[in-house]
Fold this sequence. Notes:
Elements: E1 3-6, E2 12-15, H1 17-20, H2 43-54, E3 65-67, E4 75-84, E5 94-101, H3 103-125, E6 128-134, E7 139-142, H4 144-149, H5 162-166, H6 174-185, E8 193-199, E9 205-217, E10 223-232, H7 234-257, E11 260-265, E12 270-273, H8 275-280, E13 289-290, H9 294-298, H10 304-317, E14 321-328, E15 334-345, E16 351-359, H11 361-396, H12 406-418, E17 426-435, H13 437-444, H14 446-462, E18 469-474, E19 477-484, H15 488-503, E20 506-508, E21 511-513, E22 516-524, H16 531-547, E23 553-555, H17 560-579, E24 583-592, E25 598-609, E26 613-615, H18 621-627, H19 630-650, E27 658-662, H20 664-667, H21 672-676, E28 686-690, H22 701-712, E29 716-722, H23 729-735, E30 739-742, H24 744-747, H25 754-769, E31 773-776, H26 782-791, E32 795-796, H27 807-816
Amino acid sequence: MPSxxxxxxxxxxxxxxxxxxxxxxxxxxxxxxxIDYLQEEDRNILAVQQLAALSGKVGSDPVEVRxxxxxxxxxxxxxxxxxxxxxxxxxxxxxxxxxxxxxxxxVRELDLADRESRWNNALVSSSTGVxxxxxxxxxxxxxxxxxxxxxxxxxxxxxxTTKDWLQLVHPDDRERTMRxxxxxxxxxxxxxxxxxxxxxxxxxxxxxxxxGACVSRDENxxxxxxxxxxxxxxxxxxxxxxxxxxxxRLKLALEVSRIGVFEADFDKGTADWDEGMRxxxxxxxxxxxxxxxxxxxxxxxxxxxxxxxxxxxxxxxLLPFSDEYRVILKDxxxxxxxxxxLPFIDADGHRKMIGANWDVTTxxxxxxxxxxxxxxxxxxxxxxxxxxxxIEHIALHDYLTDLPNRRYLDETLDRYGESAGARSxxxxxxxxxxxxFKQINDTLGHSAGDMMLKHxxxxxxxxxxxxxxxxxxxxDEFVFLARFEGSQRKLAQLADRIIGELxxxxxxxxxxxxxxxxxxxxxxxxxxxxxxxxxxxxDIALYHAKNRGRNRHExxxxxxxxxxxxxxxxxxxxxxxxxxxxxxxxxxFQFDARTLxxxxxxxxxxxxxxxxxxxxxxxxxxxAEELGAVPHIDALIxxxxxxxxxxxxxxxxxxxxxxxxxxxxxxxxxLLRKKLSAFTLEPGTVSFELLESIFLDEYDDQxxxxxxHLRKLGVxxxxxxxxxxxxxxVSLLRLNPKSLKIDRxxxxxxxxxxxxxxxxxxxxxxxxSLNIGVTAEGVETPDHVRILAALGCDVLQGFGLAxxxxxxxxxxxxxxxxxxxxxx
Length: 824
């Protein structure tokens, strides 16, 4: 046994050979402290032993310490410390430390503890409850997991007797469970595992799989110790019941629907048919079905090649497929079979095919009969509808020109009155009367007159747009109903175009016929339009046109003179305003939809009238257009906006860019390039907005040339009021604008209308797909801001963020950032 002699301090005085043979770190032990050879956490244990020995106390309990070895593995020792009597009165006592090597014992002990820990962890992780019945000692052990299966806490009491526990077992399982326990205790291998239901603490039933065995018996074979495990198999039992339920339903469904199910193994050359398949194909008995046998011989000769080819292709590609084919039964009858098949590879690598077949002979016969009846019924209905349509057409159309007649016109006018609240535009009525028609009719005959009427009808139909309406109301009179959007100039152009076409000579049997037309026009805007009254007003205007020389058009107006005076006065005021520099820009700021930072400012034209104050374009724009003054106003606003842009920069205010409106006449101006050369345009800081009155699909070469020049100057092109019907996708691709502005009418109802959100979202998606930025006008509320930002809109503009301001108020507005307050 390794031994060592220590002085009272614990220094080594002497060692024996066995101590010297220990695998301790190299060095001379003499004079060293023995505790220095111990692991630090064990040193106090040995020090206590030394002090006890010096004080004459000997500990009765053995202790364990670990010595440090040169290979790093602990050396477990059990030290015994005793005193060595002194040689003389002055000599100090010495200590004898005898060390018992218990390393192997500790290794086995730790290994046992480790294995026990792994076993316990495995049981816990697998949710397995352990029980141990020591019948010889009267001890019953149940693990925490065993209790958890039943919803019991560690301190919950257990049933005191078997009779009490049996009350927790499902009534249907009690007798069987007791028999299983008896056979399990008797060592019957067939009952080592059994299943039963036990009531959970919260009241529901838990399915338990019990595994157990007797591990110890007395000399008479009486069980002394029974050990086992319980596992909660409720989920498995529920799944089994669900599968059984589904199987019952499937079986019933197959029986009711008379569907046959088969499985074919191409590698074995066999097929497994259920009773439904055998009944379907008239196969009696239980003879084996071979691939290439019964079924293949029953196929109709005309269908067999196609069916074989389809099966071969889909089995090779492992593709599911459906088919319909004929079979000839033993009695010679032909049946139509429909199938649904799924090829697959099983776990053994066999090529297989599972499928279902059902008889559709009766269904096909019924389907053919229904199709025949349907075709007959549709043919009869088509004839009736055609006859009805012909009768209605004759009743509502002029027999000669095939134009709508007076009855059709009356019905159209009535419908227009009924839909007053649903329309968004006004109505214009053109009453047309042919000039010199009576002379042609009287001199060349009615045939020539009829030809002239047909020619007039052709000219009128050629000038219609979508939604327009042309009718012959009798004799040489026609009525043209057209959409009216507020521009009488366009109506005048339409009337002049019709008059010009009708004045062209028409040849008839070698004669050159000439006639013309007088047109009376009445128009109105708003929801409350009396269409029949407009027709009367157009008739009055036609009377004035004829009285003023024919071959002309006249507009109906009760106060035409007053309107003329007012228009002339306003025209004079506009010209004076241009001379006096009264047109000024007001700025409505635009904001980044995500950050609400200022993204730009739109320069809006305002008339600083000396008497009426600030006037918006609605008060002067239409007259300015007729006067041809809009391009001058545009140029003036651009010049002032550029000057204000530089003033913002001088004040240290950040406004990324400004946008100004451009009229169609200015865009078609061949001198636009020369006029713009007078300005210093920094690329990316100026945008030209095309007004809603510009029809983007009607640009000529001059307009496109001006647009290209603007891009070269670094001026961005924006489309205003997108969504109002003026711009098509084709024109977007052609113009390639920098951004487009969604009209406020589309934006207004976005917070309340799902349809409007979808429409606006679609416009934004179109812009994104074409790499075109999107600005939303009419932003009035925080909900507008939130929803439009979520839809992916780039820039926001509207009274909810900023109203138009004169330049003098813009600096305080930018610095105060008041538009952010509702969102803080």
